[in-house]
Amino acid sequence: MSKKSKLDFETKIISQIKADEIKMKPKWYFILGSLLAFSSLIGLSMGIIFLVNLSLFLIRRNGPFNSGKLQFILSTFPWWVPTIAIGGIVLAIWLLRKYDLSYKKNFPLIILIFVLAVLSAGLLLDRLGLNEYLSRGRMRRYYQQFETQDINKNPVKGIRQNYKQLNNR
Amino acid sequence: MHKLSKLTDEEVVELTRTKDKESYAEIIRRYQDKLMRYATYILRDEDKAADVVQESFIKAYVNLNGFNTKKKFSSWIYRIVHNQAINLIEKHKKELPMLENIDFDSGVDIEKEYSKGEIVKMVKRCLGQMPVLYKEPLSLYFLEDKSYIEISDILRIPIGTVGTRINRAKVLMKKYVKKK
After folding, report:
1. CATH no. for B4-92
2. What is the CATH number of domain B110-179?
3. Is B124 in the A-facing interface, judged by CB distances under 8 Å?
4. Based on C-alpha coordinates, what's the Rg of chain A?
5. SS3 content of chain B, % helix, strand, coil (to 5)
6. Residues of CATH 1.10.1740.10 domain(s) within chain B?
7. Where do you find CATH 1.10.10.10 in chain B?
8. Fewest Cβ atoms nearer than 10 Å: which of A114, A132, A167, B149?
9. What ipTM was estimated for this complex?
10. Rounded distance, CA B55 to CA B51, Å?
């Protein structure tokens, strides 16, 4: 490399710094970035756990083997719930890759642990009866959406469910 | 000036961030030759390498507050140059294809067979023919004297992968030398 271009780096960049043409990003910008990434990861994980739990609840409630007709289950199941859960997992893995541990540790193992952890947490919440609790509490309207879907797609099953609910009351 | 030269990279960075922006010149002086050499090995073009290094110095300055002074500054700045160079290569898509038909399991240990000086000469001769995948760890290890840990931090790959790539690069290098 010539001496001229050596000099150029220093003089060019320092003159730009002096003239304020290039400025350092403030410290808070990086702190905010890290906080956002971390809270996104936490929020995303919680969202995935809830959606996994909801998917399990819907599978159980629709009962893949109850109706005996696979085609019917495929047409009535709200596929957006597991789809968003899977999308969330992909996004979470992408976020995890931003951290140092992605190359310093065994990353495929980290992904496996993460996926297993969110699936187990979702399963645990479903087993603990979170959906039943929520469908009777504040999120009643939200859970009613799925029942309305059932009534629209299968009036007989919907009427049967409403009848059961009325009896329970 | 005399005082600055006694400080570590990380101390100069801290000084630049908090008190004296112009002390960044010290960082440029310390790294311009090393980074130019490294970028030229990857890109095989001195003009492009100069652009990449200049852009990297600017990017490093802009993001200086994001650097953690508990870590090694040299790995951080090499990482920036690596990213800039890879972006440029991807733009031009001039990457050499992966040599899949090569047998990498021949257990080559050129460090026992050749002296350090001979290896450096050999590496310089062969770099142009190697894919970037092997060129980078090879140049960092033999020409820039970086440790496996530093290479792992620069390329953001596991240490085991660094070892594998360097060993494969040695195999390729020996094959190139034999061909000649």
Report:
1. 1.10.1740.10
2. 1.10.10.10
3. no
4. 26
5. 75, 0, 25
6. 4-92
7. 110-179
8. A167
9. 0.76
10. 6
